[in-house]
């Protein structure tokens, strides 16, 4: 079982939920975390067992960064909105920086997320 975090900015949440639905069987075999609002959507619209953290702008991105630093997160699926300014841009940058630093599997768009899932052991 791999620990996977699912995160999406507001303009990308529909896409992440749709992607999660189409990979529901594969995701179900893993331990799933999400930032707060993303997690709420996933709980409401999929049958996945997702542990929600704080909302991204309120510290959820920072919580995921801490998990990475502690070796507790293997995969980060983060559908980033490239067209909107974020009040918590520093948190987003920090999370991505830590994912790079700790060699975390990092998917920031759908095609990459699909490729990452194909490369994971099933459970
Ligand atoms: O802002 C986010 C990531 O930077 C996502 O947070 P939410 O899932 O709480 O919207």
TrEMBL record:
GO terms for molecular function: methylglyoxal synthase activity. The active site is at 61 (proton donor/acceptor). Signal peptide: none annotated. Keywords: Lyase. GO terms for cellular component: cytosol. It catalyses: dihydroxyacetone phosphate = methylglyoxal + phosphate. The keyword Nucleus does not apply. The keyword Ion transport does not apply. One of its GO terms (biological process) is methylglyoxal biosynthetic process. Residues 1-123 form the MGS-like domain. Its EC number is 4.2.3.3. PANTHER family: METHYLGLYOXAL SYNTHASE. Catalyzes the formation of methylglyoxal from dihydroxyacetone phosphate. HAMAP family: Methylglyoxal_synth. Belongs to the methylglyoxal synthase family. This is Methylglyoxal synthase.
